[in-house]
């Protein structure tokens, strides 16, 4: 189960959200531009601080402001894929994936390097530099890197927004395979 109850004030804007969703599965946040979707994803990932609230994933408490619990982002075991991929330009694809693998903390390893490379069709890209990749390839590498960190939750902040229709159609089947084959909870 994913439990989210958050409050955060940003100037005149007050974000006040609460929901529970079963995991694994795909949870979609939708709404107008500026309504707080990215802020919610950032709060769950630990990239921003909530004024009040609670976040639990699969029984693990990531935030409970009332009890003074705020697990740092790097210890939350939450994978985050930004809409622009944010790959390391000084590393090739394999280097970016190895970075994700090194970020894995103890616990269950549910996906291995070879498995995620095959799942996302990255075999032919491993030696390429990130500037040589198309937008869809960059997103697939970012997904793979996040998965290799063995996250308990995968956050996808509009991962298709920066892609044209052809690249979206390239990436969507991979998201479906992640949902079906790995059963990693995803918040879009």
Can you put this structure into words, describing what you see?
The chain has 188 residues and is of the alpha/beta class. The protein has helices at 37-45, 93-103, 113-119, 135-148, 165-182; strands at residues 2-10, 13-21, 26-27, 52-57, 60-64, 69-70, 78-81, 153-156, 186-187. Strands 2-1-4-5-6 form a five-stranded antiparallel β-sheet, covered by helices on one side. A four-stranded parallel β-sheet has the order 3-9-8-7, sandwiched between helices. Helix 2 runs parallel beside helix 4 and helix 4 packs parallel to helix 5 (165-182).
Summarize the amount of helix as a percent range. Answer: 25-40%
Tell me the major beta sheet.
5 strands, antiparallel
What general outline do the C-alpha atoms trace? Answer: globular
Strand content: 15-25%
Which stretches are poorly predicted, pLDDT < 50 over at least 5 residues?
none
Average pLDDT level: 90
Structural classification: alpha/beta
Round the Cα radius of gyration to an integer and report it: 16 Å
Number of strands: 9
Tell me the span between the first and last alpha carbons. Answer: 16 Å
Count of runs of 4 or more consecutive helical residues: 5
Q: What is the H/E order?
A: EEEHEEEEHHHEHE
Strand order of the largest sheet: 2-1-4-5-6
């Amino acid at each position: 189960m994913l439990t989210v109850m958050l409050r955060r004030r940003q100037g005149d804007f007050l974000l006040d959200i609460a929901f529970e969703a079963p995991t694994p599965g795909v949870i979609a946040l939708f709404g107008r531009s500026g309504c707080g979707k990215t802020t919610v994803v950032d709060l769950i990932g630990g990239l921003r601080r909530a004024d009040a609230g609670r976040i639990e994933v699969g029984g693990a408490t990531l935030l409970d402001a009332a009890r003074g619990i705020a697990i740092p982002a790097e210890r939350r075991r939450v994978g985050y894929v930004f809409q622009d991929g944010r790959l390391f330009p000084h590393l090739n694809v394999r280097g970016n994936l190895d970075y994700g693998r090194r970020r894995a903390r103890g616990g269950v390893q549910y996906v291995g390097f070879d498995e995620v490379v095959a799942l996302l069709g990255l075999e032919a890209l491993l030696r390429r530099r990130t500037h040589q990749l198309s937008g869809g390839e960059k997103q697939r590498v970012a997904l793979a890197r996040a998965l290799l960190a063995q996250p308990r939750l995968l956050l996808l902040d509009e991962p298709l927004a920066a892609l044209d229709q052809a690249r979206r159609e390239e990436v969507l089947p991979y998201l479906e395979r992640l949902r079906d084959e790995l059963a990693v909870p995803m918040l879009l």
